[in-house]
Fold this sequence. Notes:
Structural class: alpha/beta
Bound molecules: pyridoxal-5'-phosphate
Oligomer: single chain
Shape: globular
Amino acid sequence: MFDAEKPNQRRPPVNWSDKHFETRAIRSGQDPDPTTGSVVIPLHMASTYRHDRLGEFKGFEYGRTGNPTRTALEDQLASLEQAQWALCFASGTAAAQNIGWLLDPGDEVLLSNDIYSGTYRLLVGTLERYGIVTTLVDFNDLDATRAALGPATKLVWVETPTNPNLKVTDIAAIAEITNGHRALLVVDNTFATPYLQQPLRLGADLVMYSTTKYIGGHSDVVGGAIVGNDPAIGDFLQAQQNAAGAVPSPFDCWLTVRGLKTLAVRMDRHSANALAVAGFLEGHPGVKRVFYPGLPSHPGHDIAKRQMRAFSGMASFEVHGGEDAARKVVEGTKLFLLAESLGGVESLIEHPHLMTHISVQGTGVGVSPDLIRMSVGIEHVDDLIADIAQALDRAV
Ligand SMILES: Cc1ncc(COP(=O)(O)O)c(C=O)c1O
């Protein structure tokens, strides 16, 4: 409890936990500034804070350790996830690295065989150098997952839907397997966001985000977050956040807070547009296969329907004509911009084999050379379909 007489405390924000997601997105952590009444949280740029007396300060001491704009974002995010705590970082990869501090030499990490290449690079490329063992698992095979879990397993790292093949993993089923085991279930929820999917409520221990994507939502900020309920893990990760120092700048936090306020309306439109684009692609003769969890033809559709509110804006597809045709399509769109990253309001298109996932070529992570990934934005859907249609018609 906040005690006005005690030093080194923050006044707790108003608790909006009985309110709907959209309301919490706008009000949680966003109490009007007590000195001016500003309805928008201030951008606190200070790197250091005055002590009233030796060892007595108003909850903030040094900019790496804590910052009021960052706290506003962390409170907002924790509220949206209905979680006990959230911690924000300089990138999604920095958040993943921070989870890595939970590992000791000899510990094992099980990870999806379809995963963002940077996470693969960090877990397999970097952490293995420090005595961490990593094993690729197909989390759609529950027996194989059960068999892979051993006494050394410390983290089970699930991404769903996956980047870039849009595979869906049953979070509750994996949580049932890890439950009672020392392994912590981590879910990278970047593609789904807390609006569409709530892994903690399905039994996960930790959720991680690249907030660079849908949470920021406007392709203008790089950031990451970890969200969880266990206070001991939260305290440890917060201490490591301070010890390792990969914190976001106050302005990055401010931009992310602003983006997060409109997450629900953006995700509804991203999802509706992506479903329409994926449906169009499925009927196009130049398209070999479409991967979108919202399509009934997707092998994970029933699981996605159970655990997601809608299916997000990410879709990928393979074209007839191999890598050459895929290159022509990604170079032939005008509205869909040829660029890495995802989750902004503008539509993007890319070739994972040669762009985002080039570092996993030749590993167990399968990315076909004729695969194209789209981040479907919130422009008018008819314009998007016309754009992809003209690029396909000229290329395939
Ligand atoms: C699913 C997923 N997780 C994590 C990351 C890493 O995030 P960042 O680029 O913010 O470090 C990305 C980046 O593309 C991603 O797509």
